[in-house]
């Protein structure tokens, strides 16, 4: 055991939770950054010197106190399901793996889950539904992803069509954070103050406790509808998305050939046709079937949703899981994250197809923003050739009013969730004066500005 690991092991009740085995350290220093052909060469081979797995806030404090005194960088890890290299240490040091801090303290009568950051979202969803609640939104990686990792690096997902993203509608009620100082502090961020920490990649504090608002559980149904063309599928999805009388949790549209990538669920696919995946209130399933048929669609699957044990589990093919299935089919595929103008979306989608053809495959996810506007977002499947060409596509989108959150950069500011009021940056100056938390991931931070006079 090296000197760093020896010193750290003395801080924990169980020294076996300080990991040094090279293959294990390398695995826990990675996430799904390899979705990006640009990030892969930049981040391949980067890893920590040691992994620490605390089981309490006290152990987090002890670890940060030691690392601050020794100028050791600390990169916080949830479950490692992120796609942007958030959990990859650029300067070695310690990976602080929070997966063992996974308790659910309670779900309050008002429907607020109080939990530790390592709790798996899937476990929370299952327990919440047993008590009459469910997550407002979650990523397609729900089974593996942690609550803390979702807050630190995620933004929205299944459920966002009804409840917006994590940053909307007071979904994150409060966060407890430990600072990186000579004597680390435990700070409670409530209300608007949570936005200093959400989607900051663990650069400005270590999340140790979370108050997450849930929503009353609904008996859902899963439906798959095939349409001859993408235009037909999108038009139908728009009617469904914008009509508030439909109770929806997921509304996803795929251009062909994306459905051909979904090899485990070939029975719901129709050759050459676009597909629509829907999570709808089971009480509305028959009405949806009738509506879809009248619009020229073909129901290829329709059944009650039995929770995360459902087969097929349609969310396994939506959001960024779609990109994974595309890459399994052809490693040349990658992705972007786009937001369309709700009044011009059809025009914008047509323009992209006319300009880029098969290079840009449409995958639309309907969402609602904090102002209550329902709009089409997208995680299009892009055939990658060069970084320059990918940047040309991004520039073209932005020039035509299509927002792009770039998943091919390895800093908070470039990923599209950085706050224009610099709240996350100012929190870093307060909470991490030496810049030791996930260094290099907040590009606008300058350590010299944070030094005491």
- Determine Rg (CA atoms, Å): 22 Å
Morphology: globular
Which strand-content bin applies to the residues?
Answer: 15-25%
Biggest β-sheet description? 8 strands, antiparallel
Distance between the termini: 38 Å
How many separate helices?
A: 14
Please bin the fraction of helical residues: 25-40%
The CATH C-level name of the domain at 220-405 is Alpha Beta
Q: Write out the strand line-up for the largest beta sheet, numbering strands in chain order.
A: 14-11-13-12-18-19-16-21
Describe what this molecule looks like in 3D:
- The chain is an alpha+beta fold and 453 residues long.
- Among the domains are: 104-216, Uridine Diphospho-n-acetylenolpyruvylglucosamine Reductase, domain 3, CATH 3.30.465; 220-405, FAD-linked oxidase, cap domain/gating helix (Vanillyl-alcohol Oxidase, Chain A, domain 3, 3-Layer(aba) Sandwich).
- It contains 14 helices and 21 strands.
- Strands 14-11-13-12-18-19-16-21 form an eight-stranded antiparallel β-sheet.
- The longest helix has 14 residues, at 57-70.
- The protein starts with a helix and ends with a helix.
């Amino acid at each position: 055991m090296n000197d760093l690991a020896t010193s750290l092991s003395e801080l924990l009740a169980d020294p076996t939770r300080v990991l040094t085995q090279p293959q294990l350290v390398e695995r826990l220093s990675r996430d799904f950054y390899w979705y990006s052909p640009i990030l892969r060469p930049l981040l391949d081979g980067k890893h920590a010197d040691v992994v620490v797995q605390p089981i309490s806030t006290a152990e987090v404090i002890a670890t940060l106190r030691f690392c601050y005194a020794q100028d050791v960088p600390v990169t916080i890890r949830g479950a490692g399901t992120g796609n942007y290299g958030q959990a990859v240490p650029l300067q070695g040091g310690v990976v602080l793996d929070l997966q063992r801090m996974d308790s659910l303290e309670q779900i309050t009568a008002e429907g607020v889950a109080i939990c530790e950051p390592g709790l798996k979202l899937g476990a929370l969803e299952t327990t919440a539904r047993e008590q009459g609640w469910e997550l407002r939104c979650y990523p397609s990686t729900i089974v593996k992803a942690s609550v803390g990792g979702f807050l630190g690096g995620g933004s929205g997902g299944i459920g966002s069509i009804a409840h917006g993203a994590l940053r909307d509608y007071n979904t994150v009620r409060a966060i407890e954070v430990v600072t990186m100082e000579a004597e680390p502090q435990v700070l409670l961020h409530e209300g608007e103050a949570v936005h200093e920490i959400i989607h900051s990649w663990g650069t400005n504090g270590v999340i140790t406790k979370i108050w997450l608002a849930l929503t009353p559980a609904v008996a859902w149904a899963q439906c798959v509808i095939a349409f001859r063309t993408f235009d037909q599928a999108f038009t139908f999805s728009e009617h469904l998305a914008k009509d508030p009388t439909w109770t929806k949790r997921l509304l996803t549209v795929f251009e062909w050939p994306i459905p051909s990538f979904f090899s485990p669920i070939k029975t719901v696919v129709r050759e050459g046709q676009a597909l629509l995946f829907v999570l709808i209130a089971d009480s509305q399933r028959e009405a949806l079937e009738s509506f879809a048929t009248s619009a020229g669609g073909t129901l290829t699957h329709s059944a009650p949703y039995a929770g995360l044990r459902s087969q097929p589990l349609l969310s396994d093919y939506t959001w960024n899981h779609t990109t994974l299935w595309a890459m399994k089919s052809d490693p040349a595929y990658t992705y972007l994250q786009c937001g369309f103008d709700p009044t011009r979306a059809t025009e914008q989608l047509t323009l992209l197809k006319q300009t880029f053809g098969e290079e840009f495959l449409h995958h639309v996810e309907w969402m609602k923003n904090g102002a209550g506007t329902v709009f089409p977002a997208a995680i299009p499947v892009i055939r990658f050739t060069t970084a320059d060409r990918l940047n040309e596509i991004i520039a073209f989108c932005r020039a035509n009013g299509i927002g792009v959150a770039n998943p091919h950069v390895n800093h908070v500011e470039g990923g599209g969730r950085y706050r224009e009021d610099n709240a996350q940056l100012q929190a870093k100056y307060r909470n991490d004066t030496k810049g030791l938390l996930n260094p290099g991931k907040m590009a606008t931070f300058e350590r010299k500005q944070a030094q005491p006079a």
